[in-house]
Amino acid sequence: MIATAFTSFVAAAACLPSFVSAHSHASKRSTSSNVVTFANDQAFLFDTDGNQIDAYATKINYFNTSSGPQYILYGISFAGPNTTGDGPLKSYSSVDLVNWKYNGILSDTVAGGRPHMIYNAATDKYVLWVNVDGGYKVGTSSSPTGGFEYVEGGGALYPGIQEAGLIGADHSVASFGDTAYLAFAALNFADPRAGSLWPPIFQTMHLSPLTSDFINSTLDAFNVTSPAFDGVDQQTESPDIFIRNGTMYIVTSNTCGYCDGSIGVVYRAATPGTPNADTQWKRDIVSGYSCGGQVEGVLPLTDPTTGEVTYVWHSTTVPGGVRVGFSGHIFQPLQFNDDGSVQDLDCSPKKQWQVPYTPGVGAVATGKLTEATDASPRFANYHPVCDSDRIASLYQTWTNSKTGVLREVAINVAAGYNQADFQVNVFAFSNLSDLVAPSYKYKLLGSASFTPDNLTQVFGTATVTLNATVTAGDMLGFSISEAAAPGSFSFANFVPFCHLEYDMHSACEAGDSAQGQVLFEQASGQNSLRGLHGNLSPVTIRQGKGIKFFSTVE
Ligand SMILES: *[C@@H]1O[C@H](CO)[C@@H](O)[C@H](O)[C@H]1NC(C)=O
Ligand SMILES: *[C@@H]1O[C@H](CO)[C@@H](O)[C@H](O)[C@H]1NC(C)=O
Ligand SMILES: *[C@@H]1O[C@H](CO)[C@@H](O)[C@H](O)[C@H]1NC(C)=O
Ligand SMILES: *[C@@H]1O[C@H](CO)[C@@H](O)[C@H](O)[C@H]1NC(C)=O
Ligand SMILES: *[C@@H]1O[C@H](CO)[C@@H](O)[C@H](O)[C@H]1NC(C)=O
Ligand SMILES: *[C@@H]1O[C@H](CO)[C@@H](O)[C@H](O)[C@H]1NC(C)=O
Ligand SMILES: *[C@@H]1O[C@H](CO)[C@@H](O)[C@H](O)[C@H]1NC(C)=O
Ligand SMILES: *[C@@H]1O[C@H](CO)[C@@H](O)[C@H](O)[C@H]1NC(C)=O
Fold it and tell me: What range does the record give for the signal peptide (predicted)?
């Protein structure tokens, strides 16, 4: 009777039959066809070592590096304990827009706001613009991924802005040949129309051409507004700039700091070679909430066969709630009408796009994640789960696929201001029904205890180092739980750790594999038989879910 109860869940845990036998965690995304896939339900990006890409307000450029042209992704780190948008800037490089290698911190001296970068051919310098303290800090380097030195006096703004008591805020810079522009939001904290509830501020978008070295704006600034100059035009921030077929576009959101959705606005005007005050901008509102995000940039991708350019809109999105570091990104190609206007974004949750692009030069980046032996699906709808106060332990299992020495098990975990430690045990076991049966003892292969300082506030990997001989086909698992820090009492700590989970069903549909991967939970205090017949395990399946992890067997 008890055996029946403990085995009945096994079939239910299985994914689709064809899926279970699929090769472990293989990427279904071919990069050979020069087509990149973007999916609305895959907001989190990870680098090739398996860490969450820690780059709020992302901007991706295609720059010529010392190893040839590559895509470089820039953004603000929120991994640190106290970051409020002034964290260090990070960059990641890729030739295929899927496999991103972390390049490290961009600069010691130029930081503190959104990074936007342009290349100046005349000076052969990369010029980094960052919005800090109501103005702009500029750095230059001969490399797009590091070595930026602060330029004293750079980033000067149109004096009329300061004279009007306005403050430079969100911005972008873009170059077209030897001409470059700064688009920036000017905040007005003194506007008497600010409401008790909303809006807290008014802000307007402006455009300035840059000096020929790209390190200063010319002392001119032109309003970017529809003729209405209405509430939408006076709440614009987070811009980016592109030119398509002779028309300049400026994409923006409305006032929406670190929020979970804002109006998406696209302005367009005939290319202002020398912008003038009479420039008539046309405006499209392309989304009421930008798919739960705030636009952060537009990525132009060129089809190498036809030369056609796709303009990919991307929004920062905070799928897991309020923590800014839990930001993902939504990417989708803008669809243009014949008159140059832009169609509404498509926020349907299952929507995917295939976009042709020009691959960068060089090897596709690899790392601990791409070389892993077994892993949760590479592409899935990962979302944060923060339940380590309610759940005593989660147990994630998998079928080991390689004979050798198990060296590492890495789990994506984020800490907050935790007082407890985060405990991971890695074990081998006979089968799923044994594992949850009373008195069963697994074989402990290794464990690690992470203090909050060992972890970050984003989903970096917590890695257990091991030295355990394993055989292909072995059932392996890990548990995660809170453990009291020395001298503290764990039950007094109501700050949970967070991990990432995916929905098994959607991972199945994506064709990824999760062989032997079953997630069990044991709620706090649940240590005895359950059920009316007194024959159920207190350890139950978290149906259809899996934890993000990978293992390395050498
Ligand atoms: C790219 O950079 C390399 C190395 O600095 C250089 O040899 C090459 O000419 C550059 N290519 C272009 C198109 O600028
Ligand atoms: C972060 O804030 C906490 C709480 O205020 C403080 O104890 C800690 O020293 C700060 N850490 C850093 C690195 O600033
Ligand atoms: C930028 O312009 C300002 C104002 O004209 C000037 O004071 C400053 O020297 C310029 N900076 C550079 C690096 O040229
Ligand atoms: C341009 O923007 C400024 C700052 O918000 C505002 O005072 C001015 O009225 C605007 N001008 C036009 C023509 O919209
Ligand atoms: C570019 O603009 C021209 C004239 O404005 C128009 O005839 C042409 O169809 C446009 N091309 C694209 C790709 O939209
Ligand atoms: C699990 O393993 C035990 C031996 O440890 C065996 O008796 C039992 O039949 C196995 N159950 C399944 C479902 O394979
Ligand atoms: C946690 O950090 C300490 C101090 O840097 C280090 O000695 C320890 O090995 C780390 N623990 C883990 C599990 O990584
Ligand atoms: C790993 O295990 C092997 C075999 O037990 C042992 O010889 C070796 O010293 C261990 N290596 C480390 C780094 O502990």
Answer: 1-22
Asked whether 434 lines ligand 6 (CB < 6 A), one says yes
Please name every residue paired with 167 in a beta bridge, in sequence order, or none if there are none.
Answer: 187
In the chain, residues under CATH classification 2.60.120 are: 2-10+373-553
Distance CA 3, CA 381 (A): 34
Check pocket membership of 431 for ligand 6, CB cut-off 6 A. Answer: yes
Distance (angstroms) between ligand 7 centre and the Cα of 452 equals 10
Query: Shortest CA distance to 421 belongs to which of 349, 483, 471?
Result: 483
**What Å distances lie between residue 437 and 263, 426, 528, CA to CA?**
53, 18, 11
340 CA → ligand 5 middle, Å: 8
Cβ neighbours, 10 Å, residue 212: 14
What pLDDT, on the 0 to 100 scale, is given for residue 364?
96
Instruction: Considering the chain, tell me which residue range(s) the CATH 2.115.10.20 domain(s) occupy.
Output: 22-356
CB 215 near ligand 3, within 6 Å: yes
What is the number of the ligand closest to the CA of 485?
7
In this structure, the number of other CB atoms found within 10 A of the CB of residue 121 comes to: 9
Pocket test for ligand 4, best of 162, 204, 230 (most atoms within 8 A of CB): 204
- The correct answer on CATH 2.60.120 for the domain covering 2-10+373-553 is yes
User: Residue 87 Cα, ligand 2 centroid: separation in angstroms?
Assistant: 14
How much distance in Å is there from the Cα of 79 to the middle of ligand 7?
A: 17
Each residue's pLDDT tens digit, 67-114: 899 999 999 999 998 777 778 999 999 999 999 999 999 998 888 899
What are the phi and psi torsion angles at 467 (to 5°)? -150, 65
Decide: 82 in ligand 2 pocket, CB within 6 A. Answer: yes
3-state helix, strand, coil in the chain (%, to 5): 5, 45, 50
53-65 pLDDT tens trace? 999 999 999 999 8
Distances (CA, A) of 154 to 49, 146, 224, 293, 448: 36, 18, 23, 31, 48
| Angstrom distance (rounded) from CA 41 to CA 98 | 15
Relative to the CA of 69, which ligand 1 atom is closest?
1
154 lines ligand 3 (CB under 6 A): yes
What does the alpha-carbon distance between residue 423 and residue 484 come to, in Å, rounded to a whole number? 9
d(CA 316, CA 212): 31
Single-letter code of the amino acid located at 122: A
Residue 178 has pLDDT above 60, yes or no: yes
Distance CA 422, CA 522 (A): 16
CATH code of 22-356, in short, is 2.115.10.20
